[in-house]
Amino acid sequence: MSVITVSRGTFSGGKILAECISQQLGYRCIDRDVIVERAAASGVSQEELRNALLKPPGLLERFGHKKYIYLALIQAALAEEVRTGKAVYHGNAGHLLLKGAGPVLRTRIIAPLEFRIRMCQERLKLSRFEAIAYIEKVDQDRRKWTQYLYGVDWGDAALYDLVLNLEFIDIEDACNIVAAAAKQKRFELTPEHQAAMNDFALGSRVRAQLATDPATSHLEVDVTCQAAVVAIRGRITDLAEIDEVRRVAGAVPSVTTVNLKELTLPTRT
Questions:
Q1: pLDDT for 21-55, tens place per residue?
Q2: Residue 159 gets which letter from DSSP?
């Protein structure tokens, strides 16, 4: 009952691969739009959420603090969608958004430029010159996005468990390889792994709630969770915010204990 993420450059066959894996394994196939729709249930604009996933640092910097809120909502939505396993997610930075969630099979698919140009022309009805420019622009934006938000190179093979090149294999072969890997014991959703996934989803829900509650939405914190005990780390601007953080986090269903020892208090003068 694995969770699989599929990372790809634009028009590299990632969606087709994800759908093939989903059909072969009987898993749900989840794309970016599903996550955005779920995250937007909190009242945030779907367009702005998509921009937070797609736009390069220049625009994200103009969002300011909002980018933190958007990403907190997106992570919480994705964590909840895949929490029970049997899910394939193809979308931007799924392997990074789910870091620490447990046995996630992180897959990357790459394809020759001619393959990508052909797909781009067929889908978007562009000239060859326009298709190349489009592919280069989207790839550059994604690379800048992951570097800016996570400090990693989007194309670094070390970020993935599997890297598949469509130069000499086709989508069906790639699908079979991923499906076989997903059945390995390492990626099974054992009771221990399920507990870790539940904790990750709960911690993400707490962070999203803190990001949207009027009393705490101005803060930027890290949230971890183990056995329903939530630990919150970050800076506050006023001592009264400690009680607000405790109130908001403690009100999230399933949270048993809120640990605020790692909140940075204001310096006394």
A1: 999 999 999 998 999 999 988 888 888 888 777 77
A2: G
